[in-house]
Amino acid sequence: MGREHSSNSRWVSGALIVIIAVFIFFVPSYGWKIRSWLSPSPENNDTGASQTDVPTLQAENDALKAQLATLQTVVSQLPTSTSDTVRAMVYSRYPMNFRNELLLNAGADDGVQSGAAVTFQGMLLGQVQKVFSGESLVQTVFDNTLKMPVRIGASGVDGLLQGGSYPTVGSIASNATIVPGDIVYSAAPGLPYGMPIAQVAATSTSPDSLFQQATLNFPYDVNNVETVLITK
Fold first, then answer.
1. In angstroms, rounded to a whole number, what is the distance separating the alpha carbons of residues 191 and 139?
2. Measured between alpha carbons, how far is 32 from 38 in angstroms, rounded to an integer?
3. Pairing state of beta strands 117-120 and 227-231?
4. Of the candidates 47, 132, 117, 97, the residue with the CA atom closest to the CA atom of residue 225
5. What local confidence, expressed as pLDDT, does residue 215 receive?
6. What are the residues facing 128 on neighbouring strands?
7. Alpha carbon distance 195, 186 (integer Å)
8. By three-state DSSP, how is residue 223 classified?
9. Helix (H) or strand (E) segment spanning residue 33
10. Which of 60, 61, 210, 231 is most buried, taking the most CB atoms under 10 A from its CB?
11. Are 206 and 177 in a shared domain?
């Protein structure tokens, strides 16, 4: 009987060892628990705790890296908001890199109203078209449906801004004097008067020979705009 009992005990012990090995190598989550039970020493308990903390520490590290990246990408563009403006970030448009509209992270809850002017580094970038509680949609001057009365240069020559991938100003009087470098600025109802939009790059005669038209230079790439100011 003694030999039989000893044999049974060895068989049970061997089976338990096999089961534990299977859990450790093929079911890691249970393996860690089993190891912690079998290793009651403080050193082993600390190791188990550190393994548990690894995902938490990694997540915190990733969050800090994301915050740092955000600060680094916008620091050169960071405008100074005033009591008359709302500062907003531009949501990413990748991979649909549209120039005609921007979605901002400020909306009605922040005091944004439809029709408000949106500026980048002091230049008129567009106008708020739709306002939601926490976001707003902006039509930029690069929208081919946009038409806006403008004035050009120190003499205030009238013109009509036509939006698009490469905005132009048309309907300029044929006898008006405009030269490359003249500033094109806002003169449309509902927008602050005199906001700079672009510079005249070159002039030519319209296809019907009745007016002058001008191509424009912009001091920024709209695809790289990260922060803007919205007028209240």
1. 13
2. 10
3. antiparallel
4. 97
5. 97
6. 138
7. 5
8. helix
9. helix 28-38
10. 231
11. yes
Looking at residue 220, the DSSP 8-state letter turns out to be: S
Look at the block and give the residue holding tokens 């004097």.
177
Number of domains in the chain: 3
164 and 127 inside one domain: no
What pLDDT score does 92 carry? 82
Q: What is the percentage of the chain residues whose pLDDT exceeds 90?
A: 57
User: Closest Cα to residue 98, out of 44, 137, 48?
Assistant: 137
The strand order across the sheet containing 117-120 reads: 85-89, 227-231, 117-120, 123-131, 136-140, 101-104
In this prediction, residues 45-73 reach a mean pLDDT of 60
Token pair listed for 62: 């990733």
How do residues 179-198 score in pLDDT, each as one tens digit? 999 999 999 999 999 999 99
Q: Cα(38)–Cα(40) distance, rounded to whole angstroms? A: 6
Instruction: Give yes or no: residues 138 and 154 share one domain.
Output: no
Q: What is the pTM of this model?
A: 0.66
